[in-house]
Amino acid sequence: MNILIVGLGLIGGSYAKAFKKYTDHVIAGIDRDEKTLKNALISGAIHKIGDQNDIKNADLIVVSLYPQAAADFINANKDNFKSGAIITDSCGVKRAIYDKLDKSLFDGRVSFIGAHPMAGKEQSGFDYSDADMFNGASLIVTAENPQSEAAITVRNIALKIGFKRCTLCTPETHDKMIAFTSQLPHILACSYILDPLALNHDGYSAGSFQDVTRVAFINDVMWSELFLDNADNLSNEIDELINNLSAFKTALGERDRDKLRQLMIKSRELKEKT
């Protein structure tokens, strides 16, 4: 296939390198940064720097941009994609992408299949991209019909470049689950590190401190957009977290050891099942 990667940052660059390493597809890349494009070409991550002809000839277009920018690119080129092309993304939210797309895209000429790779690093940019980043990782593939031919095609391609598991679901299910499994932990890490005592942790902390705070090293531009695009689901999960924290606080205030133990026993039992 002719594959076009739009946005050669950490994820887009890793897609390009993975396709190049594990498949025989022809890879073109587009990025607004000329230095990144040159590095991608010199390093062999792409076969060529993409242009308008590559947009028109691509069988698969992977748009690895932030949600609004991804939707803007797709809408701006909606008449340029060839018939039968599959367009996918790598955003951490899905309903917002679908809602922002020009509905004429869904006339059957092309297919948009959302995809969310559950992989990454604290660092960003092409320099940190890795052909093996997706090895053993999970990919969430979303579509209004998750069993459509195009969705299955995206899943099968993903398995060839290292993904171990692909979950197919609707955009609504994706956003609800991601609010809990990804976005809430980032909120928790940021909230925890805001404690004034955090700056004095050295000498008093071990693995648990590092585990809880790791994702507080956060890209505020990207994550603020993701949070707002999924604000309803994320707000519900924050309420649930507050309720659980309040249960512990109440038990402490009442000096109720039995209640504390029951909360911890329940937590341990749930963890054993995950």
The CATH superfamily label of the largest domain reads NAD(P)-binding Rossmann-like Domain
Whole-number total of structural domains: 2
Strand percentage lies at 5-15%
Radius of gyration: 21 Å
Q: Multimeric state of these chains?
A: single chain
Distance between the ends? 38 Å
CATH architecture verdict of the largest domain: 3-Layer(aba) Sandwich
Biggest sheet: strands, sense, closure? Answer: 8 strands, mixed
CATH third-tier fold name of the largest domain: Rossmann fold
Taking all residues together, what is the mean pLDDT? Answer: 96
Q: What is the β-strand count? A: 8
The top level CATH class name of the largest domain: Alpha Beta
Outline? elongated
Model regions low in confidence, pLDDT < 50 over at least 5 residues: none
Number of helical elements = 11
Determine the fraction of residues in helical runs and give it as a percent range. Answer: 40-55%
Q: How are helices and strands ordered from N to C?
A: EHEHEHEHEHEEHEHHHHH
**Strands side by side in the biggest sheet:** 3-2-1-4-5-6-7-8
Structural class: alpha/beta
